[in-house]
């Protein structure tokens, strides 16, 4: 599984990145978790509000702070 957190370095983006890493660890999922800060690459996902969350090349969330339980639900799908 490939997980990408889209964000330019704001507090919400950093928080989502840490939350995703925690969810992956707690669910014991084998996944690569990457934080993408390059604005041109972020725009390629057609995400206009940050932070964004991409799982296996599909945007599953943008523009909102996700809780640990919400991230876990998205990862289970």
In terms of topology, how is this protein built?
Elements: E1 2-6, H1 11-27, E2 32-36, H2 39-44, E3 52-55, E4 58-62, H3 68-76
Parallel strand pairs: 1-2
Antiparallel strand pairs: 1-3, 3-4
Helix pairs in contact: 1-3
Tell me about the biggest sheet? 4 strands, mixed
- Under CATH at level 1, the class stands as Alpha Beta
Poorly predicted runs of 5 or more residues: none
Order of helices and strands: EHEHEEH
Q: How many H/I helices?
A: 3
Supply the CATH superfamily name. Glutaredoxin
Q: Mean pLDDT, as a whole number?
A: 95
Distance between the termini: 12 Å
Number of domains: 1
Share in β-strands: 15-25%
- Briefly note the CATH topology name: Glutaredoxin
**From the alpha-carbon coordinates, what is the Rg to the nearest angstrom?**
11 Å
Could you estimate the helical fraction of the residues in percent? 40-55%
What is the strand tally?
4
Secondary-structure content class? alpha+beta
CATH architectural label: 3-Layer(aba) Sandwich
What can you tell me about this protein's structure?
With 77 residues, the protein is α+β, with helices and mostly antiparallel strands. The chain has a single domain (2-76), classed as Glutaredoxin (3-Layer(aba) Sandwich). The protein is 42% helix and 25% strand. It has helices spanning 11-27, 39-44, 68-76, and strands at residues 2-6, 32-36, 52-55, 58-62. It has a 4-stranded mixed beta sheet with strand order 2-1-3-4. The longest helix has 17 residues, at 11-27.
């Amino acid at each position: 599984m490939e997980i990408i957190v889209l964000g330019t370095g704001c507090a919400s983006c950093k928080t989502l990145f840490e939350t995703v890493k925690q969810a992956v660890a707690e669910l014991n999922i084998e996944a690569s978790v990457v934080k993408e800060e390059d604005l041109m690459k972020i725009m390629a996902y057609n995400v206009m509000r940050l932070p964004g969350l991409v799982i296996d090349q599909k945007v599953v969330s943008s523009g909102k702070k996700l809780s640990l339980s919400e991230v876990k639900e998205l990862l289970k799908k």
